[in-house]
Write a structure and sequence with these properties.
8-stranded mixed β-sheet; elongated
């Protein structure tokens, strides 16, 4: 009964979202949204994520990653996830292109193709959200939108002039403050949550490294971390593991002499 209630509590919000997606994106995107709704509900979550524990890594740790490593997003979303957990299951195989999202695609159209914000799908989405006085991303009316989008023009120029900076000083807590990524079984970085504007701007500007926080590691990837930590010499590691030694999530535990030349 509890699970049914929890699933039911999301239904009105998702019905609203499906109508919104249909009006902006069309039928194909709506079907994808319905599929994601079903896959993300607790009633089916055990299939996609069937094992969970905490990683050995400090959950507030920041790693430096090439933003161009993050080209896909994981379509499994858990609103209540804390950073630094390990999940088993096929969640890292249910992915889509990061630039298929409305926000990254709209940033590309605006900053690379010169499209006015008002003609982007992001603007239309925001306009629809606030049209009836519903607050969304700090905007409660259409009059707020020009200032909202101007803030991203300023962010773009700031990063272009000053480089990419940490968003804030991290403190103990479960909040993701940087670009949140998950790491699949083979070390692939996926966008998970937070920072999609900054990630896309970094890619547009060709920034080489950005700070990211890891929200989820696949159990098989965590096993690679564990194997490296327990090894006392390089030749004790399998070749499959050795090829990952320069991975941004492994350099903190890999002895410097073992690192491969770039």
């Amino acid at each position: 009964m509890t699970v049914v209630k929890k699933v039911g509590s999301y239904v009105p919000w998702y019905l609203y979202r499906m109508g919104e997606i249909y009006s902006i994106e069309g039928g194909t995107a709506t079907i994808k949204g319905i599929t994601d709704f079903i896959r993300n509900r607790d009633i089916l979550r055990r299939y996609y994520v069937n094992y969970r524990y905490n990683s050995d890594v400090n959950r507030y740790n920041i790693i430096q990653a090439d933003p161009f490593m993050i080209t896909k997003e994981v379509r499994y979303k858990d609103r209540y996830i804390s950073p630094g957990v390990v999940y088993d299951g096929p969640w890292d195989q249910l992915v889509s292109d990061f630039t298929d999202r409305i926000i990254p695609r709209s940033l590309i159209n605006h900053f690379e193709n010169g499209v006015d914000w008002k003609h982007t799908k992001y603007y239309q989405k925001m306009k629809m959200r606030v049209r009836y006085g519903r607050e969304y991303r700090g905007c409660s009316s259409i009059e707020n939108l020009p200032k909202y989008f101007e803030s991203y023009d300023k962010l773009f120029e700031h990063i272009k002039s000053n480089g990419y900076e940490l968003t804030s000083d991290l403190e103990e807590g479960d909040k993701i403050t940087e670009v949140g990524v998950s790491i699949g079984r083979k070390g692939k970085l996926y966008w998970q949550r937070e920072g999609q504007h900054r990630l896309m701007i970094a890619q547009i500007l060709g920034i080489e490294k950005i700070p990211v926080q890891v929200t989820i590691r696949h159990k098989k990837w965590q096993a690679i971390r564990d194997r490296i930590k327990s090894a006392d010499r390089l030749d004790a590691l399998d070749e499959e593991i050795v090829q990952h030694l320069n991975h941004p999530d492994l350099v903190d535990i890999t002895p410097e002499p073992w690192l491969l030349s770039e």
